Amino acid sequence: MYGSGNLIQTLLKHDLVDELRLKIFPITLGKGKRLFAEGAFPARFDLIESGISPKGVIVADYARAGDVKTGSLGSRRSRLKRNFPAGRS
Q1: Residues 6+ apart with CB under 8 A from 49
Q2: Which whole number is the average pLDDT over 34-57?
Q3: Which has the closest alpha carbon to 18: 58, 69, 62, 49?
Q4: Share of the chain above pLDDT 90, in %
Q5: CA atoms of 33 and 8, how far apart (whole Å)
Q6: ∠ CA 34-50-66 to the nearest 5 degrees?
């Protein structure tokens, strides 16, 4: 379902989102509406699929994964850094 920032806020508030598909474009346009505004319902999502278009658009699909678990990036950060191509971090 495609919708507005207001719609996603309502769905998140009522815990009605089970999957997210985010598209991240490599541009900045200045001020805009926040997708996850203050008061958004805490929810955990796991990455299920991702890809990058020839123009650099990142498409990431996430599935609802239960309650939020807090912690630290700690050792995971070092694992993530190894996945970048040489010269990029």
Answers
A1: 60, 61
A2: 85
A3: 62
A4: 24
A5: 12
A6: 65
